[in-house]
Design brief:
six-stranded mixed β-sheet, DNA-directed DNA polymerase activity, Nucleotidyltransferase, domain 5, Rossmann fold, Taq DNA Polymerase, Chain T, domain 4, DNA polymerase I, DNA-binding, nucleotidyltransferase, hydrolase, DNA-directed DNA polymerase, 49% helix
Length: 982
DNA sequence: CCCCAACCGTA
DNA sequence: GTACGGTTGGGGG
């Protein structure tokens, strides 16, 4: 190296972490290998080299090296064992990428340098000094403040991500001291991330002022007695020795015994084919194309390189030694030495289950500085768990009372400090139940101030927020103008992984995975009459409860997240679960208009009809009784009146179901049909016309349902409070309820529903020629089934024949049994059995599919939808015939119902971006989902355009993941109310 | 006050 | 025969 030569030193390790956190969290190769950081690294290198070789702009490197950390065992640990002792391990997805990034560096024909016992920063310092000594310049590609001490007339820094030069002036502007004082400044402030001790209460601003005043650190320490501020003076004097150690820790070693001489770092020409081969192996298609173009390599003729990196194959990365060794050790203890993703995930689960929870260590954060410090740490670590505490389970009514955070520190695990959690109370009230007070409790951060800080964290794309049942917190934050970005939801992780294996609530998951029972809510807030809202809970108790929630959530994430790739459900989670959180939150927030007057009028009508029927019933029974009591009704019908009782219920009571009552009515008894009619009236009244108005939100005047993403085993949503997925439609009387669901003035309700989606899915998965043909031709599927089975032509087919075929088609979807079909059609078991036999003769493919599905459920313990969603049946091998048969039917139904559910989920995820792109997002709002139907509220002028777009998105929702063998058909209609639109 | 059974609304 | 949630009555603690 000679005068005017220019050495570029790339801080590889620093870059890996920035690339990892700045990019979408999970970029993967087709085999599931995470490569997001590799991709970021390659793109950055290519950009840098392209610019660097362009002599028309800026500086041109003559020499270049990429420097990595080797391990955490450096000479600094000798000086101060606590140094970097609380670093978290790198994220699981990052681990396999360390080796790949070194390979990438070599593929770029660049020297890749690392040394045992030294940090990348020391090597960088050494080479920078060597370059300057040789008369050249050095540019460090990094934005790490630890490197800023090296900046000088001939040493610069460059932040590649922000495209920003960092020279002497920039250092002074940012830190208030010139580069040569950076060591003194860092020694004073310390560094909580690397565990460098400093002086408590001294941050960068104070440190800069002190250094300005005293000139340098030694003078400051000598004359510390002269500092005016009492606290500051005492702290500095008390920590003199520690500060000296800190200075040693932050001072970069400029004389590492580097093996590679400076001249060997000379920048070589690009080896086009070699680089293209590597990029192809990584499946970085656009970069491959660009590199091929620039280097003249023929991409099509180059074979992808053999890249040998798998999960856990090479864990060389900064601070990996402890974590890596432990993981391997536990893997061998638990799984016989396996190193597959599943083994690693298992080992990890065992590790966190064994980690004690320490409620005593939870902090209560009461001032903004402490909160900001926690948020800063969350940023540095790139992830945190988060939970809100409010006054209500209803996210639309809930008022924020406080929130909690949890952070993860790998190396503290032995004493139960691996995870730190804190509660930040915001609006807890002082005293209890006092009429005078109602004021805020002492020691809480100002609400708006805290919320602004929280907003910064939650909206920060580079920090992963982990929550349990995030949709709740997401909606609460949305109502405060905060949009959570970059998140995971432990409930949804569990759902994607373990659907069918029990509930996904936090208490159940904590018990299952951590063997830990969190403090029950009722122990904190009471229950029933004595329950208080969370703002009346004592802050100390609230801290224990709330911080524990964040703590447990973090642990669950650590256990569950690594299982995703190991069990091949990453795509299910990322495409079908997680993206629904914002979509459903917005739907819930919008709500739907319900006309009180209509409901009130209907309620009156129903009351009258029910009262009339009541009179008649008492007359016929010759006494008054509670018609709503099946027990009393049974006694009247089958005891007193002596009607022939048919079925009995499980508990030995006479059954009074519609089935039984209808049969009695058919025999000519007048009372049973009155009962059936009375039940219908009272059901409509109590469940709908009387209950719905109570759900009208006081502020929005609309009804906001709540959707559960993890309530069903199959992937369907569930709606509650109120359930808007079971609004009546089958009877004329019931449909009147739907006329109360209305669009705002100037708008229409648009309903779009999939036609026969489950039978279409069946035709696809079971690959049935006749069914596929029928759907392709658009003919009546039930009539086709009847025609095949009974040899009756479709033209002029009797209604009863078609009805039976329809029941059979539904039966197939439900995992048919002769018993069930007989019940449904009111025929003998043997006759139903004959139908089924005949059906399978005409459609043998269906029988094959059903047998194959049962076999798969037995062999694997689960079945899958066409998009890979898994539904587990742990009891499929039960020796109890009833239990086993039930599981078999459910296993047959799940791929069909679940695939249909996946399809509409995909449509829901896509619709809003598509509306946005078409300029319809402001006028077209998705409000409700009813399994195969979506309901929108659309401005009159855009109804036609919106309808076309929505139908198109829904009909193509399976693409490109699955190309269906039958077309999906969507019917849509718009009207002022839901009844007419449906 | 809590939980369960029975019943019934939807796809 | 599949998948849900809500209301009511009624029993037990």
């Amino acid at each position: 190296m000679k005068k005017d030569d220019h050495l570029f030193l790339i801080d590889g390790s620093g870059f890996i972490f920035r690339a990892f956190h700045a990019l979408p969290p999970l970029t993967r190769k087709s085999d599931g290998l995470p490569v997001g950081a590799v991709s970021g690294f390659c793109n950055m290198l290519w950009k840098l080299l392209t610019q660097a070789r362009d002599t028309s702009v800026g500086v041109t490197p003559t020499h270049l090296a990429v420097i990595f950390d080797y391990s955490s065992k450096t000479f600094r640990k000798e000086i101060y064992p606590e140094y970097k002792a609380q670093r978290p391990p790198p994220p699981e997805e990052l681990v396999p990428q360390f080796a790949l990034i070194r390979e990438a560096t070599r593929a770029f024909n660049l020297p890749c340098i690392e040394m045992e016992g030294f940090e990348a920063d020391d090597i960088i310092a050494t080479y920078a000094k060597m370059a300057v000594a040789a008369g050249g310049d050095a540019t460090i590609i990094s934005s790490d403040k630890d490197l800023m001490q090296l900046v000088g007339p001939n040493v610069h820094m460059y932040d590649g991500m922000k495209d920003r030069q960092i020279g002497v002036d920039e250092v002074v502007a940012k830190w208030g001291v010139p580069p040569e004082k950076m060591i003194d400044l860092q020694a004073l402030t310390g560094d909580s991330i690397d565990n460098v001790p400093g002086v408590p209460g001294i941050g960068p601003k104070t440190a800069a002022t002190l250094l300005e005043q005293f000139g340098d650190l030694d003078t400051l320490l000598e004359q510390a007695e002269t500092i005016k501020q009492n606290k500051r003076r005492e702290n500095i004097i008390a920590n003199r020795d520690l500060v000296k150690i800190s200075r040693q820790l932050v001072t970069l070693k400029q004389d590492c015994p580097v093996e590679t001489p400076l001249d060997a770092l000379k920048l070589e020409d690009q080896d086009g084919p070699k680089l293209v081969a590597f990029l192809k192996a990584m499946e970085f298609n656009s970069l491959t194309r660009r590199v091929a173009e620039a280097t003249g390599a023929e991409a099509a003729e180059i074979e992808p390189a053999k890249v040998d990196a798998e999960w856990g194959s090479d864990t060389h990365g900064p601070d990996m030694e402890t974590g890596g060794e432990d993981t391997a050790k536990e893997a061998s203890a638990d799984t016989g030495g396996g190193n597959t993703p599943a083994d690693l995930a298992k080992a990890r689960a065992a590790r966190f289950a064994a980690l004690p929870i320490n409620r005593e260590a939870y902090e209560t954060i009461r001032d903004i500085d402490a909160l900001n410090a926690w948020i800063a740490e969350a940023r540095d670590r790139g992830l945190c768990a988060f939970d809100t505490e409010t006054t209500s389970l209803d996210a639309m009514q809930a008022e924020l009372v406080g929130f909690s955070l949890a952070l993860y520190d790998e190396d503290e695990k032995d004493d139960g400090q691996a995870i730190r959690a804190a509660y930040i109370p915001l609006t807890h009230k002082a005293g209890q139940d006092d009429l005078l007070g109602g004021g805020l409790a002492e020691g809480q951060i100002d609400f708006d101030t805290a919320l602004a800080a929280l907003k910064g964290l939650l909206e920060d794309e580079s920090v992963l927020k982990i929550a349990q049942n995030l949709k709740y917190d997401y909606l609460v934050m949305l109502r405060h103008g905060i949009t959570v970005k970059n998140f995971d939801d432990t409930m949804l992780l569990s759902y994607a992984l373990d659907s069918g294996m029990g509930g996904h609530g936090m208490d159940a998951l904590s018990e299952k995975w951590l063997g830990h029972q969190p403090i029950p809510f009722k122990e904190v807030a009471g229950s029933g009459r004595n329950m208080v809202t969370f703002d009346h809970v004592d802050i100390t108790k609230a801290t224990a409860y709330a911080a524990e929630d964040a703590d447990v959530t973090m642990r669950l994430w650590l256990v569950l997240k690594p299982r995703l790739p190991a069990e091949h459900v990453t795509t299910v989670y990322e495409r079908l679960e997680r993206p629904l959180v914002p979509v459903l939150s917005r739907m819930e927030e919008r709500g739907i208009s319900v006309d009180r007057q209509i409901l009130s009028r209907l309620s009156g009508e129903l009351a009258q009809k029910a009262a009339g029927l009541e009179e008649e019933i008492y007359q016929l029974a010759d006494e008054k009784f509670n018609i709503g009591s099946p027990k009393q009704l049974g006694e009247i019908l089958f005891g007193k009146m002596g009607l022939p009782g048919g079925k009995k219920t499980k508990s030995g009571q006479w059954s009074t179901s519609v089935q039984v009552l209808d049969d009695l009515a058919a025999e000519g008894h007048p009372l049973p049909s009155k009962i059936v009619e009375w039940r219908q009236m009272t059901k409509l009244k109590s469940t709908y016309t009387d209950a719905l108005p109570g759900y009208i939100h006081p502020d929005t005047k609309r009804v906001h349902t709540s959707y559960s993403l993890a309530a069903t085993s199959t992937g369907r949503l569930a709606s509650s409070e109120p359930n808007l997925q079971n609004i009546p439609v089958r009877t004329a009387e019931g449909r009147k309820i739907r006329t109360a669901f209305i669009a705002n003035p100037g708008h229409k309700l648009l309903s779009a529903d999939y036609s026969q989606i489950e039978l279409r899915v069946l035709a696809h998965v079971a690959d049935i020629a006749q069914l596929k043909q029928a759907f392709a031709d658009g003919i009546d599927i039930h009539a086709m089934t009847a025609s095949e089975m009974f040899g009756v032509p479709v033209e002029g087919m009797p209604g009863e024949v078609r009805r039976r075929a329809k029941a059979i088609n539904f039966g197939i979807i439900y995992g048919i049994s002769a018993f069930g079909l007989a019940n449904q059609l009111g025929i003998e078991r043997s006759e139903a059995g004959d139908y089924i036999k005949r059906y399978f003769e005409r459609f043998p493919g269906i029988r094959d599919y059903m047998e194959a599905t049962k076999a798969a459920a037995r062999d694997n313990g689960y079945v899958e939808t066409i998009f890979g969603r898994r539904i587990h049946y742990p009891e499929i091998k039960s020796s109890n015939h009833q239990v086993r048969s039930f599981n078999e039917r459910a296993a047959i139904n799940a791929p069909i119902q679940g695939s249909a559910a996946d399809i509409i989920r995909r449509a829901m995820v896509r619709i809003e971006p598509e509306l946005q792109a078409a300029g319809l997002a402001e006028t077209t709002k998705m409000l409700l989902q009813v399994h195969d139907e979506l309901i929108f509220e659309v401005e009159d002028g855009d109804v036609d355009k919106a309808q076309t777009l929505i139908v198109d998105v829904m009909e193509n929702a399976s693409m490109p993941a699955v190309s269906m063998a039958v077309p999906l058909k969507v019917d849509a209609r718009a009207a002022h109310n839901w009844d007419e639109a449906h």
